[in-house]
Structures are given as structure tokens and as C-alpha cells.
Design brief:
It contains six helices and no strands. The chain has 135 residues and is mainly alpha-helical. Helix 4 runs antiparallel to helix 5. The two termini are 59 Å apart.
């Protein structure tokens, strides 16, 4: 009958150093990274910089100065609330733009052929999902 003894060699439980040092699965070479561009983009989103840009644009905006002047004038004669509402409509109209050629609206009603944008849920897809769902 053969002996079933465990060999007594002096092997360590840890794997060798070359086996432990495996490459990361999504390794990106440092040479292909745009580090200065990343830092510039990160810094451009700092709240202090955003507030500084907002303050500068308000300070140099003729529309804002005109609104403040009209608001002050109408407030002195007692129609400040009306001017505030008109100012809100003015801001909405000033900040809307026409869609560029080929650009689709988020609301499918305004698209040619009432075509929805990618990722939107339509009734046919919802109905199909509800019918094929396993209960």
C-alpha cells in the first residue's frame, strides 16, 4: 500500500513576486493621457471660478443693467411685482434658442414625424415590456 504522506518541502504560501504583479485589466499608458487638459477642465469647474465668471457676466451685461433700472423705476411707482414677472418672461425668452439643423427636440411632438429621441420610452415599448415580463 502506497504511503499518503504530505511532502515536507519548504514552500511558502505566498505566490512568487512576478505572479503577484499582474497588469491592471484596464491599463492606460501614461503617455496617452492628457494630464494638463484634465487639470484645466477640472479647474474650470471650480465653484469659485464659476461664481467669478457669473459675477463678471452680470456686471458687463447691458440686459441685466436695463432690467435693474426698469425694476427700480417700476418699484418706485408701485408696479415692481409686475416688472418682476415681465423680467422672468424676458429671461426665459433671452435664454432660449432655435434648434440647429438636424437637432431633435427632447419632446417628440416637435420632431418631424413625431419621432422620439434615443432612450425615450414610447407606449409600444412599454406595452411590450409589460406583456413579456415574467410574473
Amino acid at each position: 500500500m502506497p504511503s499518503t504522506s504530505i511532502p515536507t518541502s519548504s514552500r511558502s504560501a505566498k505566490p512568487s513576486a512576478d505572479k503577484r504583479k499582474s497588469k491592471k485589466p484596464y491599463h492606460i499608458p501614461r503617455s496617452s493621457l492628457d494630464i494638463p487638459g484634465f487639470i484645466e477642465e477640472r479647474d474650470s469647474r471650480r465653484p469659485s471660478l464659476l461664481l467669478t465668471n457669473f459675477y463678471y457676466k452680470l456686471r458687463t451685461s447691458r440686459q441685466f443693467h436695463l432690467y435693474v433700472l426698469l425694476q427700480a423705476l417700476t418699484a418706485t411707482i408701485g408696479y415692481g411685482q409686475v416688472m418682476f414677472i415681465v423680467g422672468l418672461f424676458w429671461a426665459m425668452l433671452a435664454n432660449t434658442r432655435k434648434r440647429q439643423k438636424g437637432e431633435m427636440s427632447a419632446y417628440s411632438l416637435f420632431n418631424p414625424g413625431v419621432e422620439g429621441i434615443m432612450g425615450s420610452t414610447d407606449m409600444e415599448a412599454l406595452e411590450q415590456e409589460l406583456r413579456t415580463r415574467g410574473v
